[in-house]
């Protein structure tokens, strides 16, 4: 192949360029890819590039913490309301979460991992603006039962709920079975439920089984107040395809 047969990356069809650049992370797109040439910048500004935003595992990059929040807002803005999935680790606070909610009424999937500064009021203020939410994951954030109840009442399509409280003192914050009762009361369409290090007891679990008839996958890792006697094991095996938990 001679030099005349080589093509510039800038001359690639926009759909092909998009399929390549969409594999990059938020930072790589905003800090590098969009600065390569005009055609790449045009592709990087297309709202279809920002239907899914991944802001996880970014603290290892050499960039200021506050700048990550600014970049997240910028990415949300570029979605122009078309954001469907977002994953945020560490950097989200009440203000950023509500910015996302105000701009993303079409959001289906929200993952908040180790976002320690989010308060219950901030979570509630945001989740009531996300009626299409189907997937909610919250780790290391002590949400109250009332907050979860509001989430269930606001997000009627919620199919997956994942809560990891492994660093939270749940029994001191909410008491036994509080989360379980609120989940049972407000989330009847759940298919996948993951409660890690939760304080629920057999009473709370039975309430969930009574009220969530579509449940297919149940993970109760580190839920040490659950005692799987023969009756409970039999009930779970008949109703749920996959069950994980202590001493099963």
From TrEMBL:
F-box domain: residues covered: 6-53
Gene: LOC104738466
Pfam short name (any one): F-box-like
Superkingdom as given in the UniProt entry: Eukaryota
InterPro entries (UniProt xref): F-box-like_dom_sf, F-box_dom, LRR_dom_sf
Protein name: F-box/LRR-repeat protein 23
